[in-house]
C-alpha cells in the first residue's frame, strides 16, 4: 500500500525522506520488521520503540513514524506525529481497509460487567440470526476461530486486524470490551463506534502504568462517548454525568428506576434445582418479562444493558427472552449442575472487592450455608491474601482454602497468609492444598440449600506452578469428581 494512503487520516510532519513509497507491512515490534516495513516507534511502560530505530532500518524498514527525534540514514522516511499510539490506530485502520465501517461496532466500558454483557449481547444477536464477532478479556471470537486474549482491549493494530478478519468472515457486528487503559492508550482510536456502552465505575485500575487517579479513570471512560454514535449508559451510576461530560453522541439510559429510558421493575430472586436466577419486568422503551439463570441485581443490570443494545438491532421480545433464559458466561458466576439439592458455581473473583460483591449478592438468596473455595496467586500481593481471607471469613459460612497459581511460592505459605485474614473473623475454614481435592470436599460435603462458590479461576484452564502452566479446567475436575475419578 502507498505510504500516502496510510497517512491520510493523521496530522504529521515529514522530517526526512519521501512519501512516494510502497509499504509491505505495518509493524510496532522491532522483532517483526521485514524489508519495506513501516515501523511505529511506541513509548511503552517497559521499553521505548525509538531506541530500535537503527536496528529496524538495518532489517529493511523504509519508514519510521516517531514522536521523538531519531537518527537514521537520509533515504529513510521519518514521519513525526504528536502521538505514535494514536497514529498507529489510524494507520492500522487504513492498512486493513477501514473494516469497522463494514460492520456495526458495539463497545462496552465500565469497571464491572463488561465481559458478561458482551457474551449476553452475542447470544441475543446470534439467536436472532446475526453473525457476531467478539473481543474481550477471555478471548477474541472470529467466526470459528477463537484466539485467547492477552489484554481486554488489544493494541490498535490487533483490533483492526481482528475487525478485518471478522468482516471477511461475514460478521454483521462486533461486540467488544473497551478498557479504560485501551481508551487512554488509543487502542480503539481510528474508527467510530456505532454504540458506546457504560456499565458502572468504581475506584479500580489506579496505580503505576494504570490511571493516576479516579478523575483520570473517569475521563478515560468518557472518551468512548466522544467516539460513538449512540451512547447507552447506566442512569443509576452516581458518576454517569461525569462520564458523559463533553459527549458527542445521542444518549439513552437504562437502570432500575423510571427515570431511565429502559428500566427494570419487580425484581424476584429465584432458586430451585441447583440454580439461582432472577426474574423482572422490562419497562419503558420495551415492555416484557425476563427470566435469567444468573444471580443477583448485577445480572439485571447486565441483561438490561444487553436488551438496550439489542433493541437497536430490531430483535424481537421472544428472541431476547429465549436467549437470556439460556445465557451462560464461562467463568462468570457460571453455574455447574452437580445436584438438584445445592448450587455450585465457578467465578473469576480474585480480589477482595469482587469477592465481597459476589458473596454479598449470593447471601441475598439466603443459602443454608454459603461455602467459598479459593486460593491466592503466588508472587503477587500479600495484602490480597489477607483481604480475601477476611472477606470470606466474614461472609461465608465455610471457607475452603486451596491453591490458585502458586507460581514460585510454596502453596502452604500462601494458605498461611490467607489464614491471617480469616483469623481476624470468626469464620470457619478448612485447608486443602490440592485444588481438585478441595473441590471434591466441597461437593461431597454439599448440603441441601448450600451455595458453593469456586472463586478465582473463572475461565482460566491452567494452574501455574514454578514457571509452568499445567492444564486444569475446573469443569473437567468437577466431571472427574462426579465420575469418581
Ligand atoms: C502497561 C501496558 O499497558 N502494557 C501493554 C503494552 O506494553 P507496552 O506498549 O508498554 O510495551 P513495551 O514492552 O514497553 O514496549 C514499547 C514498544 O517497544 C516495542 N519493542 C519492545 C521490545 C523490543 O525488543 N522491540 C520493540 O520494538 C514494543 O513492541 C512496543 O511497541 O502493550 C502490550 C501489547 O502490545 C500489552 O500486552 C501490555 O499490556 C500488559 C500485559 C498489561 O498488563 N496491561 C494492562 C495495564 C492493561 O492494558 N489492562 C487493560 C484492562 C484490563 C481490565 O479491565 O482488567 C487491558 O485492556 O488489558
Ligand atoms: N454489572 C455488574 N456490577 C457489579 N459487579 C458485577 C457486574 N457484573 C458482574 N459483576 C461481578 O464482577 C465479576 C466480573 O464480571 P465481568 O467479568 O463481567 O466484568 P468485567 O468488567 O469484564 O471485569 P474485569 O475487568 O474484572 O474482568 C463477576 O463475576 C461478578 O461477580
TrEMBL record:
Residues 331-458 form the Mur ligase C-terminal domain. Keywords: ATP-binding, Cell cycle, Cell division, Cell shape, Cell wall biogenesis/degradation, Cytoplasm, Ligase, Magnesium, Nucleotide-binding, Peptidoglycan synthesis. Residues 108-309 form the Mur ligase central domain. ATP binds at residues 110-116. Residues 22-93 form the Mur ligase N-terminal catalytic domain. Its cofactor is Mg(2+). The keyword Secreted does not apply. The modification N6-carboxylysine is found at residue 221. The keyword Transit peptide does not apply. Carboxylation is probably crucial for Mg(2+) binding and, consequently, for the gamma-phosphate positioning of ATP. Pathway: Cell wall biogenesis; peptidoglycan biosynthesis. Transmembrane segments: none annotated. Gene3D superfamilies: Mur ligase, C-terminal domain, Mur-like, catalytic domain, MurE/MurF, N-terminal domain. Its EC number is 6.3.2.13. Its main location: cytoplasm. It is an enzyme of class 6 (ligase). Meso-2,6-diaminopimelate binds at residues 380, 404-407, 456, 460. This is UDP-N-acetylmuramoyl-L-alanyl-D-glutamate--2,6-diaminopimelate ligase. It comes from Blautia stercoris.
